[in-house]
Design brief:
By secondary structure, the chain is mostly helical. It folds into 3 domains: 11-101, Multidrug-efflux Transporter Regulator, Chain: A, Domain 2 (Orthogonal Bundle), CATH 1.10.1660.10; 124-192, Multidrug-efflux Transporter Regulator, Chain: A, Domain 2 (Orthogonal Bundle); 195-256, no CATH class. Helix content is 54%, strand content 5%. The chain has 10 helices and 5 strands. The strands form 2 sheets. The chain has a 3-stranded antiparallel β-sheet with strand order 3-5-4. A two-stranded antiparallel sheet has the order 1-2. A hairpin with a 2-residue loop joins β4 (163-165) and β5. α9 runs antiparallel to α10. Residues 1-20, 99-129 are annotated as: Disordered. Residues 10-20 have a biased composition (Low complexity). Pfam families: MerR_1.
């Protein structure tokens, strides 16, 4: 089969992008996502498919066709790589657990195929509530492959806290994800004491956002509080993105 390029399917038979729901070729997917992921390429998408992370359907001629669910799944994979630095093995587990299945939030005047709209609205942290399952230390270790010593170290340095419930210390879903990330970092020799700088950074950013939005978040007007929570989520996503860009800029100096 000929190499798939951005014009891999003749124009007359090419599925159109947009709100029609029709499938996209691999080249069209690249065009759609390049605004949010500048390093995306056809070969990278193929590699993710080879790793069984993507499952686009094929035409009788062997061309890949991506539905909206495939594109959303690809977005999730790329964001987990870019924003959380997760290896493919962990990303596969996250997807199997349903990560990234929540619907995107798009305003009535937004183009839902716009990379800018996707970046601004679909990856905001969900701040309103953590919820989920409470886990004891033993269950947390089973779930994340952390050692009890690592969990103790993370608690000692204030990275996770846990809370008492029915006579035991338990951890919610947010802290499970923190421990899971710490397990990955521990493989590179990063311990709880090293993570204090990230804890301090998060505290400072939280204080800044509270200074900006605290009065509205404490308002007695429910609509104003809802608007403030929405703004808080957007600001949190933007600050995370800025931190990522600053980190990448500094790390590139190491390999220049």
């Amino acid at each position: 089969m000929a190499e798939e390029q951005l014009t891999e399917v003749p124009a007359a038979g090419r599925p159109a992008a947009g709100r029609s729901g029709r499938p996209l070729t691999i080249g069209q997917v690249c065009k759609l996502l390049v605004g949010e992921f500048p390093d995306i390429s056809i070969s990278k998408i193929r590699y993710l498919e080879d790793q069984k992370l993507l499952h686009p359907r094929r035409t009788s001629g062997g061309y890949r066709l991506f539905g909206s669910d495939d594109v959303d799944r690809l977005r999730t994979i790329l964001r987990l790589q870019r924003d959380e630095f997760l290896p493919l093995r962990v990303i596969r587990q996250e997807l199997a657990a349903g990560r990234g299945q929540e619907p995107r939030v798009v305003g009535p005047d937004d183009d839902e195929d716009s990379p800018a709209t996707s970046a601004a609205t679909s990856h905001r942290p969900r701040i309103k509530a953590s919820g989920g399952t409470l886990r004891t230390v033993e269950e947390l270790c089973d779930d994340t492959r952390a050692t009890p010593q690592l969990v103790k170290e993370l608690r000692d340095f204030g990275i996770v806290q846990g809370r008492e419930h029915e006579g035991a210390i338990v951890f919610d879903d947010d802290e499970r994800e923190i421990v899971r990330a710490a397990v990955e970092l521990a493989r590179y020799g990063v311990g709880g004491r090293h993570l204090r700088v990230l804890r301090s950074s998060a505290d400072r950013e939280g204080a800044l956002l509270e200074q900006l939005l605290g009065p509205a978040l404490r308002s007695r007007n429910s609509e104003r509080r809802a608007e403030a929570v929405d703004a808080l989520e957007t600001l949190a996503a933007t600050t995370m993105r800025l931190k990522h860009l600053l980190l990448i800029r500094d790390l590139r100096r190491l390999v220049a």
